[in-house]
Design a protein that fits this description.
- There is one protein chain.
- The chain is of the alpha/beta class and 196 residues long.
- The chain has one domain.
- It has five helices and seven strands; from the N terminus they run βββαβαβαβαβα.
- Helix 4 links the parallel strand 6 and strand 7.
């Protein structure tokens, strides 16, 4: 496996957060939709996601080519944990990293879903590098988190220009599932939520 090269990608912002390529955004969700770092190495994974504990993918920044072992057709950007209490500089670093890796993966043929699962403090920063008209998003649903999901849904609508954007919602329970049905969003059951 070849290590990733040190590359500067084009940017549309003062923080040099890379721009994604519109021609390499994901479309319909291809299955299986598999969490990274759960033991499926070298097995076929159609779509890889990072809605797992950060420790499972922290090493990817050192070698983002590691996901090629799974041979995914598409991937959701890395979902670093960003909360309202996360210092801004720290959060910007994580947004830079996930967007850089996503662009690198695009350059190697992997289609990308933009991860919207950040706290409201980081909404505008998380938008950097995502071109207008982008219509491939994913987020993590949460029990009791319907208001935050509504805000993420509205952000996807603004960016894409569609009333019903291509947004995958991973888990969140019955209330989140019903919201997804009302708005024609794709809801994917999360086994951790199902256990509760």
């Amino acid at each position: 496996m070849e290590l990733a090269k040190d590359i500067l990608f084009p940017s549309d912002n003062l923080y040099d957060i890379p721009c994604l390529r519109l021609d390499r955004q994901a479309g319909h969700l291809e299955l299986p939709f598999v969490p990274y770092g759960t033991g499926r190495r070298n097995k076929r994974v159609a779509t890889l996601h990072f809605y797992v504990d950060d420790y499972r993918f922290n090493a990817l920044w050192k070698n983002p080519a590691k996901i090629f072992d799974n041979n995914p057709a598409a991937a959701v950007e890395c979902n670093y944990s960003l909360f309202d209490t996360t210092p801004l500089a720290f959060g910007l670093q994580f947004i830079y990293q996930k967007r850089w890796m996503a662009r690198y993966w695009q350059e190697n043929g992997i289609r990308i879903y933009v991860d919207l699962n950040v706290s409201s403090k980081f909404f505008e920063y998380n938008r950097m590098g995502v071109p207008d008209g982008w219509n491939a998003f994913a987020t993590r649903g949460a029990l009791g988190g319907l208001e935050l999901l509504k805000a993420k849904f509205n952000q996807a609508r603004q960016i894409s220009g569609f009333d019903s954007p291509n947004l995958i919602v991973y888990g969140g329970g019955k209330e989140v599932h019903e919201f997804c049905c009302r708005h024609s969003l794709l809801y994917v059951h999360d086994y951790m939520t199902e256990k509760l």
